[in-house]
Amino acid sequence: KPVSMNAFELISRSPGFSLENLFER
Amino acid sequence: MGCVSSKGRRQFPGYEDPVFLASQTTFSVSEVEALFELFKSISSSVIDDGLINKEEFLLALFKNRKKENLFASRIFDLFDVKHRGVIDFGDFVRALHIFHPNTSMEDKINFSFRLYDLDNTGFIEREEVKQMLLALLGESEMKLADETVEAILDKTFLEADTNQDGKIDMSEWQYFVSKNPSLLRIMTLPYLRDITTAFPSFVFYSEVDEAAA
To answer: Where does the record place a coiled coil (chain B) (predicted)?
Structure first.
């Protein structure tokens, strides 16, 4: 099966990049 | 405004005048003051010293201070512009400014490049991308065979590394991101538009006249 996604699309899904959580007080 | 004294602000090392910070960023003075309410809360969650250390940053992101995470650590390191292992209020506001919906694409692209350039060489190398990909797999339920990981890296570098020298430079990144705008989604926090609504208590601590805010 050919790979359809590039690495950065996958990496950018890491919860570590989800800064929204900073605002949940 | 300014109905309550906020002398405590001087206890925050690196505290900067909201009017000055607003002049340097996309934020209004009121928004900077609302961000200070958020900053106070995060910076006092483990050690009440007016600075955010990595433990407090991770705690705010994951509600779990023990959780090591390559990506959150990378963001922390870029916020920590003075490389002291802590984020002061000025660092915090200037870094969040990049994530504001109104900040230029150029600033967002530059920041995202630095995010992925783990060893700060000015290039995003295949090994760095592989390291991040493996970290992502380690933190998720996703399982990929080694050959699939290599195939993803091949495809990525075929598309992004236009001169095929094995690394992605800034101009290649700018072109790649323009073709894949979804990659910049993590660089915008719509929440920052409503920061004064989220932290309305800033009004009680404001040091600035309404006319200036």
So the answer is: none
